[in-house]
Amino acid sequence: MRDKTIDYVLRTTWLAVQKMYNEEASKFDSTMATGFTLLSIDPENGTPSTALGPKMGMEATSLSRILKTMEEAGVIERKPNPKDGRSVLIHLTDFGREKRDYSREKVLTFNNTIRNNISEEKLNSFYDVAELINNLISSKKIYNQNDDK
Question: Tens digits of per-residue pLDDT, 33-74?
């Protein structure tokens, strides 16, 4: 795999993880996107809808579609924010809490399996490399966004 580009390895690995989660979620009439959203919602106090997109790294339009589907499935409900009448809080229903627990269990199983098969040193290196890549991207050190096209 060392002859592959870094972005190829990242992309194919993420696609494999995504496929694995979607296959698992489909057994329970769900998707990875729904599970990820459930895990991003505060199970006790709800989460402002405007905070979910940035928390998940998603565009508002994609998140709106997911939330609509989740609401239709009965896993979330929207309630007015008592602290700010202009915003809405996304709350989990009892069914949503069950789905969230299931999603959490699957994520923990994945993480524990990886941790049991990769040394702590290698895993720490992986985190260091991922953080460096994210920092290079966010600080625009790979492509200068002001360059003429």
Answer: 999 999 999 999 999 988 998 999 888 888 999 999 999 999
DSSP structure string for the chain: -TTS-HHHHHHHHHHHHHHHHHHHHHTTT--HHHHHHHHHS-TTT-EEHHHHHHHHT--HHHHHHHHHHHHHHTSEEEEEETTEEEEEEEEE-HHHHHHHHHHHHHHHHHHHHHHHHS-HHHHHHHHHHHHHHHHHHHTT-SS-TTS--
Q: What's the whole-model pTM score? A: 0.84
| Euclidean distance between CA atoms 17 and 15, whole angstroms | 5
